[in-house]
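Archive entry. Fields below.
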Amino acid sequence: MEYLTEIKVRGYHADFYGHVNNARYLEFFEEDRWATLESKIDLKKWAKQGIIFLVVNINVNYRLAVPVGETLVATTTIEKIGNRSVVLNQQILIKESKKVAADALITFVIADKTGRAVAMEGEMLQEIEKLRSSGTV
Amino acid sequence: MEYLTEIKVRGYHADFYGHVNNARYLEFFEEDRWATLESKIDLKKWAKQGIIFLVVNINVNYRLAVPVGETLVATTTIEKIGNRSVVLNQQILIKESKKVAADALITFVIADKTGRAVAMEGEMLQEIEKLRSSGTV
Amino acid sequence: MEYLTEIKVRGYHADFYGHVNNARYLEFFEEDRWATLESKIDLKKWAKQGIIFLVVNINVNYRLAVPVGETLVATTTIEKIGNRSVVLNQQILIKESKKVAADALITFVIADKTGRAVAMEGEMLQEIEKLRSSGTV
Amino acid sequence: MEYLTEIKVRGYHADFYGHVNNARYLEFFEEDRWATLESKIDLKKWAKQGIIFLVVNINVNYRLAVPVGETLVATTTIEKIGNRSVVLNQQILIKESKKVAADALITFVIADKTGRAVAMEGEMLQEIEKLRSSGTV
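PREDICTED_STRUCTURE:
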């Protein structure tokens, strides 16, 4: 299996305890979300229409303290597509052992120019459904 | 009410959309956790014994998109003290309107030198109970 | 002397070596630049006209390794006003000892809506000159 | 030519103006320094001896405002090896056009366990000289 996102943990990712900082994980998750979304969806087309992806909840479990020097990989899959929101399931794994360092459920809505969440239907739903397809993600 | 943490939102806190980035909120929450903990607990004493606070879950709701120029304040209270973990309830508020921009439940355990979670009892429990006390937090 | 920016160094500011990370200092400097600018200049007025401050060079000396727990303060003064650029002199000091942890010369230009640097003259020059005035900065 | 570091600019790298933030560039530079150093030098061997690389000056020119969506690459070469310090020359380029977005001179010293800079000589000098060798860096 190939991963879209691979991160070698550096000293600047770590905090005082020598482990990857909690806030950094959110950046790693965000990196893989964008990599995954753009590998399946024409994001520019949606951006032109003023459609944006708005994260409304992040529920993250920190499972392992990852030291500097370790290499991490990330995965992003669909957990659930609701009427007005999508839940992604993301994992950060230690590349070698495949042990889960952190996992997260990320809930986002799709908002239009007026800032209001729009229903997941029609062409938008079809686009989002593409994230279910197998492959690297 | 006085707040331990006050943050004026700057351009470098914002992302492409001009709003405070998701990962930044975790830093704001972390800032207020430390400010709150050190206002009530002698952290250095615990550090000397090799005791560390280990966040195991963060569940954060992003409720408002906060623009650059706004001033935010933070609060940290005890949600629940369990046998082996503590849940904090944190909020980031817009200072003027007191509207909640983001809130989070943060679960942490207390680990000893060997990295294992220790039970919340005795002196440790007494220290943690101090976080319940009223005042600025 | 009062400082506009005061930062207690936390674990998340530090890197693997337990010291404030190089990139973090740039955020501390940026924080104090904004605090200083907005204490003297009506930034919103300029923003409305599409005027932005564009940093073109940062030359920073890291002089002391600052450990977690230390409190830092920052200063921002005018080093030189040129025809098309301004050089600021910034310092990050350890609050207690007043030892310099890092200092920097920051060169910025003022750009208009078309992205081109504009000459420092007229009303703009008067505004920038305000940064010379004594007080907290 | 192959690059050790390639970064796709995401929304979370950008600031309010929609461009890569100044402090982020320092992380990109740091990323490529570590990638370059570890591709030529046995860093673990030196770490075991308590030898650390200490950045004492960063002089960075911001030449282009880089928008979200652009792909950047980085280069790190030796500018000068002195008696007690090394100067690296680093560039961040837009991958497609090879235009320089930012460049920097980074001065570091090598410090021993006591925190004092050590002279660049003997085995240490040989290791550092490896960074001159051609290849990807």
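CURATOR_NOTE: Helices of chain D lie at 22-40, 43-48, 122-129.
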